[in-house]
Amino acid sequence: MQMKKWVQTGLIAGALMLVYTAGGLVQQHAPQQAAAQEETQVNSTITVQGTGMLSASPDWSELRVGAETEGETVAAAQSATAESIAAIKEALLKNGVQAEDIKTAEFNVRPNYQYDEKGSRSLNGFVVTHILHVGYGELGSVGKVLDAAAKAGANRIDNVQFTIEDRGDLEIKALEKAGKHARAKAEALAAAAGKTIVDIQQVTEQSGGGGLMGFERAAADDSDGGSTSIEIGQVDVSKSISVTYIVK
């Protein structure tokens, strides 16, 4: 009987110890949970996008000129195209283009098919296309260079575009403008929510939006046999960033 009382007493004591221990654990974790909640509240964030753009005069042009020739065989078409390209290169060099600024941008050989009234096709020789990428810094003479290429046999003048060869400083200034733009947007959003910016959590430059070049279309007017006239505009340098601000 006495042994039974001891067992009961021991069980009661053990239960009390478990209660006290559990209570201590609850008290121990309560401040940690409160701190975590407080930290979560402090680290509320706002993420915004900022964009900065500058315009400047270009100092470099990029031209795509070349020749496209038909022939009964691939060899015949390729030989005729090669002859035209050699003459075009010579004309470019004579008009101030540097040899290192002339590169092949495209070379293509394709069959030339003819279709009859019934829709049946037959091979009618081959077409060889050779396009050159040409870099040129004398912007005032771009029209003259195009005329020289055309007279030498260029029957493909695909594109004329203008850019800035060294855009490093402009890109930095565009990023600075993007940062100010992002900050202004974040401050407006924070104020609307009754919060204040306290720090920056993350800044990321947006891929695909950095240093975008603005291209101006070339305007050619040779209806009276005169020289090609090229209208040069401004080049846009744009940068975009994403900024996450910590607010409280």
Automatic annotation (TrEMBL):
Metal-binding is among the record's keywords: no
InterPro entries in the cross-refs: 26kDa_periplasmic_antigen (IPR052022), SIMPL/DUF541 (IPR007497)
Signal peptide bounds: 1-22
Domain of life: Bacteria
Keywords: Signal
GO biological process per UniProt: DNA damage response
Entry annotated with the keyword Metal-binding: no
Matching PANTHER family: SLR1258 PROTEIN
Full protein name: SIMPL domain-containing protein
Native source organism of the sequence: Paenibacillus sabuli
